[in-house]
């Protein structure tokens, strides 16, 4: 094993170069991360993202060459970026779309590299207990009924297929001090690379606003924030702090906003049809040819491993697991996957037919921090070796998901072919356009105006200028 080599940063701080052990660790985790986040996204934007990521990572002093960093552009519809020891850096296409300039993208990547450079993963508190049921990077939504562990604390057994070591590297939250240190390093890297060091503050602001909007759309309270911001606390304070620190550096104002917008024009946005698409209250999977409709007032959140249906008093998850044709074993495994430390005693497995599917279901009662809830598993047999199922958590005396369970049905070929992906479209503001009028071009049934503002880093007091380029989402 080689001995660690040290390099100097621009502030004469000692930075340890990537070790052989870290390289081996990163290589082990990398394929698991690709599986969790929909794989690497090969597109016209890939080279742009990789080049920018390697450029900003090189400023850390972790390696002697930009090529020592493996930057992956992930096919994921969630806002996320992260880095792990060994020179592995990741960013999702959704977060790239949220960035309004190359500098903003570099800033958020620089922040993540800063965590690695400071070896924060070695310093985090040892909290990866309960088989790391918070899931890889908190990707499986946490605390669905206010229960941080045990029964469906994160609808959480989905992460158990991952190694405990991977979960320890990725799931634990950083301390406030560590977040601030990573912000400082990210700003330093921006300055060293010739970017406007104020860009990170703007990116943090966009992330905070997008996180809040996502939570509302998904039917969550504002303190149940998803994805990147869930492990990056105090966004408002960090925006102000990052802006103050960014002002201490040179006068560079280079952001390359126009180049960034040109690069992402036409890029896939939101759900990939291969992973299913959310349209209003309906979830459709054109490749597997099924669809269902969530109750009014409930948000739908699509991830690589499951679909979550969130409401104020009830939660549901739609997912799959191994199936050999044994219905009782499938139901048992589904309960076990979400029960954590608690054993759920459920009743007899009922079998029936609905909408052309063989259906099998069982229910039990479980205790949470919010009291007792009904837990029901309802599975649909697609073939002798494939099944999918809902897990629903509902109040003991009511079940708002009856209509959703009954709505599960096969899609016709015509319906599947009619599903259209969304994409980023760069729109040039015309004379007479207003933010409200341009927002109507957004390909959504709800929250068009709010989505438009957040996507472009605007607020209700902003003014559009003729000839200005903005992002809209179209089919």
From TrEMBL:
<dbReference type="GO" id="GO:0016020">
    <property type="term" value="C:membrane"/>
</dbReference>
<keyword id="KW-0645">Protease</keyword>
<dbReference type="Pfam" id="PF01476">
    <property type="entry name" value="LysM"/>
</dbReference>
<feature type="domain" description="LysM">
    <location>
        <begin position="425"/>
        <end position="472"/>
    </location>
</feature>
<keyword id="KW-0479">Metal-binding</keyword>
<dbReference type="InterPro" id="IPR001915">
    <property type="entry name" value="Peptidase_M48"/>
</dbReference>
<keyword id="KW-0862">Zinc</keyword>
<dbReference type="GO" id="GO:0051603">
    <property type="term" value="P:proteolysis involved in protein catabolic process"/>
</dbReference>
<dbReference type="Pfam" id="PF01435">
    <property type="entry name" value="Peptidase_M48"/>
</dbReference>
<dbReference type="InterPro" id="IPR036779">
    <property type="entry name" value="LysM_dom_sf"/>
</dbReference>
<dbReference type="GO" id="GO:0004222">
    <property type="term" value="F:metalloendopeptidase activity"/>
</dbReference>
<keyword id="KW-0482">Metalloprotease</keyword>
<dbReference type="InterPro" id="IPR018392">
    <property type="entry name" value="LysM"/>
</dbReference>
<protein>
    <submittedName>
        <fullName>Peptidase M48 Ste24p</fullName>
    </submittedName>
</protein>
<dbReference type="GO" id="GO:0046872">
    <property type="term" value="F:metal ion binding"/>
</dbReference>
<keyword id="KW-0378">Hydrolase</keyword>
<dbReference type="InterPro" id="IPR051156">
    <property type="entry name" value="Mito/Outer_Membr_Metalloprot"/>
</dbReference>
């Amino acid at each position: 094993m080689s001995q660690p080599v040290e390099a100097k940063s621009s502030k004469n701080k000692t930075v340890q170069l990537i070790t052989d052990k870290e390289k081996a660790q990163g290589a082990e985790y990398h394929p698991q991360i690709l599986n969790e986040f929909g794989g690497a996204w090969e597109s016209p934007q890939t080279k742009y993202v990789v080049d920018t990521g390697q450029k900003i990572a090189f400023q850390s002093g972790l390696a002697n060459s930009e090529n020592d960093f493996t930057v992956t552009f992930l096919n994921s519809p969630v806002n996320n970026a992260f880095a792990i020891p060994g020179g592995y850096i990741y960013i999702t296409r959704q977060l790239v779309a949220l960035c309004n300039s190359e500098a903003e993208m570099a800033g958020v990547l620089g922040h993540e590299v800063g965590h690695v450079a400071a070896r924060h993963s070695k310093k985090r508190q040892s909290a990866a207990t309960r088989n790391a049921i918070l899931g890889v990077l908190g990707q499986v939504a946490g605390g669905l009924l206010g229960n941080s562990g045990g029964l469906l604390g994160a609808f959480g057994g989905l992460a158990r297929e991952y190694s405990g070591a991977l979960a320890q590297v990725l799931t634990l939250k950083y301390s406030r001090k560590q977040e601030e240190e990573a912000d400082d390093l990210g700003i330093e890297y921006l300055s060293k690379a010739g970017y406007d060091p104020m860009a990170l503050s703007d990116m943090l602001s966009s992330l905070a606003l997008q996180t809040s909007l996502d939570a509302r759309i998904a039917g969550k309270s504002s303190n149940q924030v998803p994805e990147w911001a869930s492990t990056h606390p105090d966004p408002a304070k960090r925006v102000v702090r990052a802006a103050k620190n960014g002002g201490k550096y040179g006068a560079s104002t280079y952001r390359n906003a126009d180049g960034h917008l040109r690069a992402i024009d036409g890029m896939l946005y939101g759900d990939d049809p291969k992973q299913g698409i959310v349209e209003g209250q309906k979830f459709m999977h054109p490749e597997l040819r099924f669809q269902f409709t969530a109750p009014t007032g409930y948000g739908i959140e699509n991830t690589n491993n499951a679909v979550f249906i969130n409401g104020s008093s009830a939660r549901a998850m739609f997912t799959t697991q191994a199936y050999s044709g044994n219905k009782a074993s499938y139901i048992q495994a589904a309960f076990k996957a979400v029960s954590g430390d608690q054993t759920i005693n459920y009743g007899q497995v009922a079998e029936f037919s609905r909408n052309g599917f063989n259906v099998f279901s069982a229910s039990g009662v479980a205790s949470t921090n919010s009291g007792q809830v009904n837990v029901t598993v309802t599975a649909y047999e697609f073939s002798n070796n494939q099944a999918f199922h809902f897990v629903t958590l509902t109040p003991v005396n009511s079940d708002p998901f009856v209509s959703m369970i009954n709505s599960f049905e096969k899609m016709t070929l015509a319906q599947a072919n009619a599903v259209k992906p969304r994409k980023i479209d760069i729109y040039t503001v015309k004379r007479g356009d207003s933010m409200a009028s341009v927002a109507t071009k957004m390909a959504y049934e709800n929250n068009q105006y709010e989505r438009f503002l957040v996507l472009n880093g605007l607020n209700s007091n902003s003014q559009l200028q003729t000839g200005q380029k903005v992002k809209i989402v179209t089919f």
